[in-house]
Amino acid sequence: ADLPDLVGKLPSPKVIWIMLPAGKPVAETLEALGALLGPGDLVVDGGNTHYRDDVTRAEKLQSRGVRFMDAGVSGGVWGLQEGYCLMLGGASADFQALEPLLKTLAPADGYLHCGPVGAGHFVKMIHNGVEYALMEAYGEGFELLQASPYGGELALQKVAALWNRGSVVRSWILELLEAALARNHDLAGVSGHVEDSGEGRWTVEQAVADGVDATNIAQALFKRFRSRRAETFSDKVVAALRNEFGGHGVHGANPK
Q: Is 93 buried (19+), middle (13-18) or exposed (0-12) by CB count in 10 A?
């Protein structure tokens, strides 16, 4: 019925795995669990938490004798069928204690002890940044196909299916696109509004902090921001400037 009821039903040492939205929900739950659990108990955060928060929270729980691991989880809704890719951060002993569960959840060779607390979520953060760039690349490629002189003749679902058979750009993401196009060949009725969960932002922030060129990931993140606005002021500025210096037409402007 509630956390005290849950903790009371588990034998010691207790292992509790949480999967909650990053931020306040995780912080409040870990605070409550910290007061309920005892020395030797283990908490695993399987959500998309920022790795720096893991370090702080682990230290706080450790002061009460409670152990902590972070688990980056990938696989989406297909994980139930395919297994989940698991990225773990924490002490080696805690990883070994948790390993039987990991073997159950993951496919063969689908889990890894990435390092100390925070390492699992750090690896998952970069994973999601790469995912942003991959999806953006596919999106741009298929828009080029659709807009091309051959767009009216090309069956995009068949192109996706073709590329998934032996080509160097084949991937599970492309398989998912193939399935989506099979159901809806021109994605009619699908809004181009794309949200972000925060992982892409954290990846770009990390690139800035470390001085790493992550141009494609950053661009993919910014394109998501752009997708939420039908018309931007920056576009108006560019159109107005082209008109000022080159006399280029401005769509929708009143004639002089």
A: exposed
Predicted TM-score of the model (pTM): 0.91
Task: Give the separation between CA 130 and CA 61, rounded to whole angstroms.
Answer: 32
Q: Which of 14, 124, 136, 178 is catalytic?
A: 124
Mention every residue, 6+ apart, whose C-beta is less than 8 A from residue 69.
42, 43, 44, 45, 88, 89, 90, 91, 94, 95, 98, 117, 120
Active site residue 24: no
Whether 124 sits among the annotated catalytic residues: the reply is yes
> Of these residues, 60, 103, 131, 223, which one is catalytic?
131
Interatomic CA distance for residues 41 and 38, integer angstroms: 6
Phi, psi angles (nearest 5°) of residue 198: 115, -25
Reported as a single tens digit per residue, the pLDDT across 38-90 is 999 999 999 999 999 999 999 999 999 999 999 999 998 889 899 999 999 99
Q: Strand (E) positions, the chain?
A: 15-18, 42-45, 67-74, 85-89, 111-115
Give CB contacts under 8 A, 24+ apart, made by 144-148: 146/186
Q: Where are the beta strands (DSSP E) in 56-179?
A: 67-74, 85-89, 111-115
